[in-house]
Design goal:
heterodimer, A: alpha+beta, Translation Initiation Factor IF3, 3 helices, 3 strands, about 50% helix, elongated, B: alpha+beta, 4-stranded mixed sheet, 2 helices, 5 strands, about 45% strand
Chain lengths: ~160, ~100
Amino acid sequence: MESWIGLGIQVGIPVGLLLLAYAVGSAVEGRHYRSLRARELRSRSFPVLTLRAPPADWRIEGIELVSGSVVVSLDYFKRFLAGLRLLVGGRIASYETLLDRARREAVLRVKEDAFARGCHAVINLRLETARLNRTLGSEGGTAGVEIVAYGTALKLARRSF
Amino acid sequence: MILSNTETIPGRTIREFYGVVTGSTVRAKHIGKDIMAGLKNIVGGELTGYTELLQEARQEALERMIAQAKSVGANAVVNVRFATSSITQGAAELFAYGTAVKVE
Protein backbone atom coordinates (compact mmCIF):
# COMPACT_ATOMS: atom_id res chain seq x y z
CA MET A 1 0.00 0.00 0.00
CA GLU A 2 2.72 2.46 1.03
CA SER A 3 4.74 1.70 -2.06
CA TRP A 4 1.70 2.66 -4.14
CA ILE A 5 1.51 6.04 -2.39
CA GLY A 6 5.23 6.47 -2.91
CA LEU A 7 4.88 5.68 -6.61
CA GLY A 8 1.90 8.03 -6.84
CA ILE A 9 3.99 10.89 -5.41
CA GLN A 10 6.99 10.05 -7.58
CA VAL A 11 4.94 10.08 -10.78
CA GLY A 12 2.31 12.59 -9.71
CA ILE A 13 4.65 15.52 -8.95
CA PRO A 14 6.48 15.53 -12.33
CA VAL A 15 3.22 15.00 -14.25
CA GLY A 16 1.51 17.76 -12.27
CA LEU A 17 4.45 20.09 -12.95
CA LEU A 18 4.30 19.23 -16.66
CA LEU A 19 0.59 20.05 -16.82
CA LEU A 20 1.06 23.28 -14.87
CA ALA A 21 4.01 24.28 -17.05
CA TYR A 22 2.03 23.49 -20.20
CA ALA A 23 -0.98 25.58 -19.14
CA VAL A 24 0.95 28.59 -17.81
CA GLY A 25 3.72 28.40 -20.43
CA SER A 26 1.26 28.47 -23.35
CA ALA A 27 -0.64 31.38 -21.82
CA VAL A 28 2.61 33.31 -21.27
CA GLU A 29 3.75 32.70 -24.83
CA GLY A 30 0.40 33.68 -26.32
CA ARG A 31 0.31 36.89 -24.32
CA HIS A 32 3.88 37.75 -25.28
CA TYR A 33 3.14 37.27 -29.00
CA ARG A 34 0.05 39.50 -28.77
CA SER A 35 2.08 42.20 -27.01
CA LEU A 36 4.90 41.91 -29.58
CA ARG A 37 2.51 42.27 -32.52
CA ALA A 38 0.79 45.31 -31.00
CA ARG A 39 4.07 47.09 -30.14
CA GLU A 40 5.63 46.26 -33.52
CA LEU A 41 2.63 47.73 -35.29
CA ARG A 42 2.86 50.92 -33.21
CA SER A 43 6.60 51.38 -33.81
CA ARG A 44 6.51 50.37 -37.48
CA SER A 45 7.46 53.85 -38.71
CA PHE A 46 10.64 53.92 -36.56
CA PRO A 47 13.47 52.72 -38.83
CA VAL A 48 16.00 50.22 -37.49
CA LEU A 49 18.71 49.34 -40.00
CA THR A 50 21.65 46.97 -40.03
CA LEU A 51 23.47 49.31 -42.43
CA ARG A 52 26.75 50.61 -41.06
CA ALA A 53 26.33 54.10 -42.50
CA PRO A 54 23.13 56.15 -42.62
CA PRO A 55 21.60 57.08 -45.99
CA ALA A 56 23.48 60.09 -47.38
CA ASP A 57 20.52 62.51 -47.31
CA TRP A 58 19.88 62.25 -43.55
CA ARG A 59 21.02 65.35 -41.63
CA ILE A 60 22.39 64.10 -38.32
CA GLU A 61 22.46 66.25 -35.19
CA GLY A 62 23.57 63.75 -32.58
CA ILE A 63 24.12 60.08 -31.85
CA GLU A 64 23.66 57.72 -28.91
CA LEU A 65 24.58 54.11 -28.25
CA VAL A 66 21.38 52.20 -27.46
CA SER A 67 20.79 48.64 -26.35
CA GLY A 68 18.04 46.28 -25.35
CA SER A 69 18.32 42.87 -23.79
CA VAL A 70 16.16 40.05 -22.55
CA VAL A 71 16.80 36.76 -20.74
CA VAL A 72 14.28 34.04 -21.53
CA SER A 73 13.83 30.39 -20.75
CA LEU A 74 11.56 27.57 -21.95
CA ASP A 75 8.88 26.18 -19.69
CA TYR A 76 9.31 22.74 -18.12
CA PHE A 77 6.86 21.08 -20.52
CA LYS A 78 8.60 22.34 -23.64
CA ARG A 79 12.02 21.43 -22.26
CA PHE A 80 10.64 17.93 -21.75
CA LEU A 81 9.40 17.84 -25.38
CA ALA A 82 12.74 19.20 -26.61
CA GLY A 83 14.44 16.38 -24.69
CA LEU A 84 12.26 13.83 -26.49
CA ARG A 85 13.04 15.48 -29.81
CA LEU A 86 16.74 14.81 -29.21
CA LEU A 87 16.01 11.09 -29.59
CA VAL A 88 14.75 11.39 -33.15
CA GLY A 89 16.42 14.60 -34.30
CA GLY A 90 14.89 17.32 -36.44
CA ARG A 91 13.51 20.79 -35.75
CA ILE A 92 12.84 21.80 -32.18
CA ALA A 93 10.03 24.24 -32.82
CA SER A 94 9.70 25.28 -29.17
CA TYR A 95 13.25 26.72 -29.13
CA GLU A 96 12.64 28.43 -32.46
CA THR A 97 9.65 30.36 -31.16
CA LEU A 98 11.48 31.15 -27.90
CA LEU A 99 14.43 32.74 -29.73
CA ASP A 100 12.11 34.50 -32.19
CA ARG A 101 10.19 36.07 -29.29
CA ALA A 102 13.37 37.06 -27.50
CA ARG A 103 14.96 38.72 -30.56
CA ARG A 104 11.81 40.64 -31.40
CA GLU A 105 11.54 41.77 -27.78
CA ALA A 106 15.19 42.91 -27.71
CA VAL A 107 14.78 44.91 -30.94
CA LEU A 108 11.62 46.53 -29.57
CA ARG A 109 13.56 47.54 -26.45
CA VAL A 110 16.23 49.11 -28.66
CA LYS A 111 13.52 51.11 -30.39
CA GLU A 112 12.00 52.14 -27.05
CA ASP A 113 15.44 53.15 -25.69
CA ALA A 114 16.19 55.20 -28.82
CA PHE A 115 12.75 56.83 -28.77
CA ALA A 116 13.11 57.72 -25.07
CA ARG A 117 16.41 59.48 -25.83
CA GLY A 118 14.71 61.59 -28.50
CA CYS A 119 16.23 59.80 -31.48
CA HIS A 120 14.56 59.11 -34.83
CA ALA A 121 16.33 56.05 -36.23
CA VAL A 122 18.82 53.30 -35.35
CA ILE A 123 21.63 52.14 -37.64
CA ASN A 124 24.14 49.28 -37.41
CA LEU A 125 21.88 47.04 -35.35
CA ARG A 126 23.68 43.98 -33.99
CA LEU A 127 22.16 40.96 -32.27
CA GLU A 128 24.03 38.64 -29.95
CA THR A 129 23.09 35.47 -28.10
CA ALA A 130 24.67 34.12 -24.94
CA ARG A 131 23.80 31.09 -22.83
CA LEU A 132 23.77 31.52 -19.07
CA ASN A 133 25.04 28.71 -16.89
CA ARG A 134 22.91 27.21 -14.18
CA THR A 135 24.02 27.86 -10.60
CA LEU A 136 22.25 25.13 -8.71
CA GLY A 137 22.03 21.49 -9.71
CA SER A 138 24.35 19.85 -12.18
CA GLU A 139 22.00 18.55 -14.87
CA GLY A 140 23.91 20.59 -17.44
CA GLY A 141 20.85 22.64 -18.29
CA THR A 142 20.84 26.34 -18.86
CA ALA A 143 19.50 29.09 -16.63
CA GLY A 144 18.32 30.92 -19.72
CA VAL A 145 19.42 32.53 -22.94
CA GLU A 146 20.28 36.20 -23.18
CA ILE A 147 19.67 38.12 -26.38
CA VAL A 148 21.28 41.56 -26.66
CA ALA A 149 20.47 43.98 -29.43
CA TYR A 150 22.45 47.19 -29.80
CA GLY A 151 23.00 49.91 -32.32
CA THR A 152 23.67 53.58 -32.92
CA ALA A 153 20.63 55.83 -32.56
CA LEU A 154 20.52 59.04 -34.60
CA LYS A 155 18.95 62.39 -33.87
CA LEU A 156 17.93 63.85 -37.18
CA ALA A 157 17.47 67.53 -38.05
CA ARG A 158 14.49 66.79 -40.25
CA ARG A 159 12.85 63.43 -40.62
CA SER A 160 13.53 62.39 -44.18
CA PHE A 161 11.41 59.21 -44.35
CA MET B 1 31.38 61.01 -24.20
CA ILE B 2 29.99 60.12 -27.63
CA LEU B 3 29.54 56.38 -28.16
CA SER B 4 28.82 54.62 -31.42
CA ASN B 5 28.98 51.09 -32.78
CA THR B 6 29.73 52.35 -36.28
CA GLU B 7 33.28 52.89 -37.59
CA THR B 8 32.81 56.63 -37.87
CA ILE B 9 30.61 59.10 -36.08
CA PRO B 10 27.91 60.18 -38.50
CA GLY B 11 28.10 63.93 -39.01
CA ARG B 12 31.52 64.34 -37.30
CA THR B 13 35.15 64.02 -38.36
CA ILE B 14 37.66 61.94 -36.42
CA ARG B 15 40.90 63.86 -35.72
CA GLU B 16 42.89 61.46 -33.59
CA PHE B 17 42.99 57.76 -32.64
CA TYR B 18 44.00 56.57 -29.17
CA GLY B 19 43.67 52.81 -29.62
CA VAL B 20 41.53 50.19 -27.95
CA VAL B 21 39.73 50.84 -24.67
CA THR B 22 38.01 48.08 -22.72
CA GLY B 23 35.74 47.68 -19.74
CA SER B 24 34.60 44.49 -18.10
CA THR B 25 32.85 43.19 -15.03
CA VAL B 26 32.23 39.69 -13.72
CA ARG B 27 28.92 39.30 -11.91
CA ALA B 28 27.49 36.47 -9.90
CA LYS B 29 23.80 35.93 -9.48
CA HIS B 30 22.21 36.81 -6.17
CA ILE B 31 20.97 33.59 -4.54
CA GLY B 32 17.45 34.96 -3.94
CA LYS B 33 17.14 36.05 -7.54
CA ASP B 34 18.43 32.67 -8.59
CA ILE B 35 15.76 30.82 -6.64
CA MET B 36 13.08 33.08 -8.11
CA ALA B 37 14.47 32.48 -11.59
CA GLY B 38 14.48 28.74 -10.88
CA LEU B 39 10.77 28.88 -10.13
CA LYS B 40 10.18 31.03 -13.20
CA ASN B 41 12.03 28.39 -15.20
CA ILE B 42 9.08 26.00 -14.69
CA VAL B 43 6.63 28.24 -16.55
CA GLY B 44 9.15 29.79 -18.92
CA GLY B 45 9.12 33.30 -20.33
CA GLU B 46 11.30 36.26 -19.43
CA LEU B 47 13.52 36.00 -16.35
CA THR B 48 13.24 39.67 -15.42
CA GLY B 49 15.72 39.43 -12.54
CA TYR B 50 18.47 38.21 -14.85
CA THR B 51 17.62 40.74 -17.56
CA GLU B 52 18.03 43.59 -15.07
CA LEU B 53 21.18 42.12 -13.56
CA LEU B 54 22.91 41.76 -16.92
CA GLN B 55 21.75 45.15 -18.19
CA GLU B 56 23.11 46.75 -15.02
CA ALA B 57 26.40 44.88 -15.40
CA ARG B 58 26.68 45.87 -19.05
CA GLN B 59 26.19 49.51 -18.07
CA GLU B 60 29.01 49.16 -15.55
CA ALA B 61 31.33 47.63 -18.17
CA LEU B 62 30.48 50.54 -20.46
CA GLU B 63 31.24 53.06 -17.71
CA ARG B 64 34.64 51.46 -17.08
CA MET B 65 35.38 51.70 -20.78
CA ILE B 66 34.32 55.36 -20.80
CA ALA B 67 36.57 56.06 -17.78
CA GLN B 68 39.53 54.54 -19.63
CA ALA B 69 38.72 56.58 -22.75
CA LYS B 70 38.59 59.78 -20.67
CA SER B 71 41.95 58.99 -19.07
CA VAL B 72 43.65 58.90 -22.47
CA GLY B 73 42.03 62.20 -23.48
CA ALA B 74 39.42 60.91 -25.93
CA ASN B 75 35.98 62.47 -26.33
CA ALA B 76 34.36 59.58 -28.21
CA VAL B 77 34.52 55.80 -28.59
CA VAL B 78 33.68 54.28 -31.95
CA ASN B 79 32.95 50.72 -33.02
CA VAL B 80 31.82 49.66 -29.54
CA ARG B 81 31.22 45.90 -29.22
CA PHE B 82 29.62 43.91 -26.42
CA ALA B 83 30.41 40.33 -25.41
CA THR B 84 28.89 38.11 -22.74
CA SER B 85 30.49 34.91 -21.58
CA SER B 86 29.57 32.37 -18.94
CA ILE B 87 32.80 32.10 -16.98
CA THR B 88 31.78 29.58 -14.37
CA GLN B 89 28.59 28.26 -12.83
CA GLY B 90 26.38 31.16 -11.89
CA ALA B 91 28.69 33.92 -13.07
CA ALA B 92 28.94 35.86 -16.28
CA GLU B 93 31.44 38.33 -17.67
CA LEU B 94 30.12 41.38 -19.43
CA PHE B 95 32.69 42.98 -21.68
CA ALA B 96 32.62 46.18 -23.73
CA TYR B 97 35.38 47.40 -26.02
CA GLY B 98 35.91 50.00 -28.69
CA THR B 99 38.34 52.46 -30.25
CA ALA B 100 38.93 55.74 -28.42
CA VAL B 101 39.07 58.75 -30.72
CA LYS B 102 38.92 62.52 -30.70
CA VAL B 103 36.24 64.13 -32.84
CA GLU B 104 35.56 67.77 -33.48
